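Sample entry (233 residues):
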Amino acid sequence: MISTGWITPPPIYPREVTTRLSLWLVLGMALSAATAWLALSQTFFREQVAGSGYIVLFVVLWLGSGLILRRFVPSFTALMAFSVLVTMSLLTGLLSASIFPLHAALLAFGLTGGMYASGAVLARFTSGKRYYFLLLVSGVGLSILVNIVTHSSGWRWAGTSTFLLLFWLASASKSAEVQADARSLYARDYVTTQSCALRGALTVWLGLITMLVDLLRVLVDWLSSMTHGGSLH
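Predicted structure, serialized as tokens:
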């Protein structure tokens, strides 16, 4: 006798979500790097956009888009999450191309993408705090190795390492939220692991923007208090 009941979808495994999330972030880094390369290969961009007032426009667009879109992530479908992730990757590539030289931008995206590629492998064997510790070790190790081989200057070391560390911080700080969101989505809508991973990757990318805005707010408050304190004397 053939059963005609509901078919139970495959369960969501945290390690599988982390693995696929890492691969989506690798794709995002590759897209950002390609965008920066394509932009800086254009004479108009190099002469009229890079290093000009357009930087302010790109910064406002990048930060504003991230802060606004962050509010709507819980309602995104997989297709919408993919579209927004692609858009943010493109904006990140354009922003980096308007500020940094091509080799520095490509190195930053390449190192961070390499860290997440190693993360996709690490997620198969470990999880939790140990996973993020090993992810950090792999990222820092890769950064040291590549910067030594390419004879990077001190500024390039600092810039590429800071970029990598900021993404690592965003990933670590958003890990609990990503897993909780995956469990909630599965319980409510029976979504696939791929859908959860896509939304998780977007959460990390937008989380980086939120984190930077929070850091800027703290810095402004600190400078304001220092100025105010100085004026009292």
